[in-house]
UniProtKB/TrEMBL annotation:
Belongs to the PurS family. Part of the FGAM synthase complex composed of 1 PurL, 1 PurQ and 2 PurS subunits. The lineage of its organism: Bacteria, Pseudomonadati, Pseudomonadota, Alphaproteobacteria, Sphingomonadales. One of its GO terms (molecular function) is phosphoribosylformylglycinamidine synthase activity. Keywords: ATP-binding, Cytoplasm, Ligase, Nucleotide-binding, Purine biosynthesis. This is Phosphoribosylformylglycinamidine synthase subunit PurS. It catalyses: N(2)-formyl-N(1)-(5-phospho-beta-D-ribosyl)glycinamide + L-glutamine + ATP + H2O = 2-formamido-N(1)-(5-O-phospho-beta-D-ribosyl)acetamidine + L-glutamate + ADP + phosphate + H(+). The keyword Ion transport does not apply. Pfam families: PurS (PF02700). Gene3D superfamilies: Phosphoribosylformylglycinamidine synthase subunit PurS. Its EC number is 6.3.5.3. It is found in: Cytoplasm. Part of the phosphoribosylformylglycinamidine synthase complex involved in the purines biosynthetic pathway. Catalyzes the ATP-dependent conversion of formylglycinamide ribonucleotide (FGAR) and glutamine to yield formylglycinamidine ribonucleotide (FGAM) and glutamate. The FGAM synthase complex is composed of three subunits. PurQ produces an ammonia molecule by converting glutamine to glutamate. PurL transfers the ammonia molecule to FGAR to form FGAM in an ATP-dependent manner. Its main location: cytoplasm.
Amino acid sequence: MKIRIFVTLKNGVLDPQGKAIHHALESLDFKGVKDVRAGKLIELDVADDTSDSDLKKMCEKLLANTVIENFEIEKLTDQATEEA
């Protein structure tokens, strides 16, 4: 089973990478970008019987720093996997 985990900084946490991207976009003359928040995407291929609880524990123990980050778990269907 294919899993995507999106990890983003919580609101209020400074995002130096996002600021650097924003500055670079402005310097390349891209106008209208008000703010940038950077995150990460982690893709896993796990056994079909992997529980939602286990996926959550993976995020909480290793994949996300839950003090400053949020995470969202997405299970991909066969069609979504083929499109990716």
